[in-house]
């Protein structure tokens, strides 16, 4: 019988034949490539530190983000609908919708970043354009989110 574990990133139940990562001599089971990649970037964000205590995730911290992205969305409703459906299935995304030509997206930064969301959009194959000004704006958001994640990755001292 296969033993089950919880993914430290999204807390889904996973079996031992899923993705694994060894950190500090301990094997962690992860549910997906997305969770594995996030765990590898900042393991202390999810599992804490033996000397410092529990992680932000273990303390139940969520970082709610809501963004309006100015994208030149596909003209056909089917592509736009497929994009929204795909985004709503992405771990960490709580809501994605198109409103007056803008993509409105809400997500938990502890589980997914805007940069990962944008990479996911590109992976769908739906062609989307963005102005250079909006790309610069999003780059500042990426930089800010990276700083927030780095700060959250420092474990809290448990009292």
The Cα radius of gyration reads 17 Å
According to DSSP, the number of beta strands is: 7
Amount of beta strand = 15-25%
CATH architecture of the largest domain: 2-Layer Sandwich
- Look at the helices and sheets and give the structural class: alpha+beta
Q: Provide the CATH top-level class of the largest domain.
A: Alpha Beta
Give the ordered list of helices and strands: EEEEHHEHEEHH
InterPro entries: TRASH_dom (IPR011017)
Protein name: TRASH domain-containing protein
Organism: marine sediment metagenome
Domain TRASH: 7-43
Short description:
This protein is an alpha+beta fold. 36% of the residues lie in helices and 23% in strands.
Descriptive account of the structure:
The chain is an alpha+beta fold and 159 residues long. It has 2 domains: 4-47, no CATH class; 64-152, 2-Layer Sandwich (Alpha-Beta Plaits), CATH 3.30.70. 36% of the residues lie in helices and 23% in strands. The strands form 3 sheets. A 3-stranded antiparallel beta sheet has the order 5-7-6, covered by helices on one side. The chain has a two-stranded antiparallel sheet with strand order 1-2. Strands 3-4 form a two-stranded antiparallel ribbon. The longest helix is centred in the last third of the chain and has 21 residues, at 132-152. It is globular. The model has no long low-confidence stretch (mean pLDDT 85). Residues 7-43 form the TRASH domain. This is TRASH domain-containing protein.
């Amino acid at each position: 019988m296969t033993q089950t574990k919880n993914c430290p990133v999204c807390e889904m139940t996973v079996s031992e034949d899923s993705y694994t990562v060894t950190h500090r001599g301990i094997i962690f089971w992860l549910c997906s490539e997305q969770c594995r990649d996030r765990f590898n970037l900042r393991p202390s964000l999810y599992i804490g530190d033996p000397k410092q205590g529990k992680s932000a995730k273990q303390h139940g911290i969520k970082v709610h983000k809501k963004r309006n992205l100015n994208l030149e969305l596909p003209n056909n409703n089917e592509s736009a609908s497929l994009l929204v459906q795909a985004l709503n299935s992405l771990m960490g995304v709580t809501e994605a919708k198109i409103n007056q030509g803008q993509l409105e997206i809400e997500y938990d930064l502890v589980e997914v970043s805007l940069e990962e969301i944008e990479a996911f959009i590109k992976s769908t194959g739906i062609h989307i354009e963005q102005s250079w000004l909006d790309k610069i704006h999003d780059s500042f958001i990426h930089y800010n989110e990276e700083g927030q994640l780095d700060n959250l990755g420092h474990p809290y001292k448990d009292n």
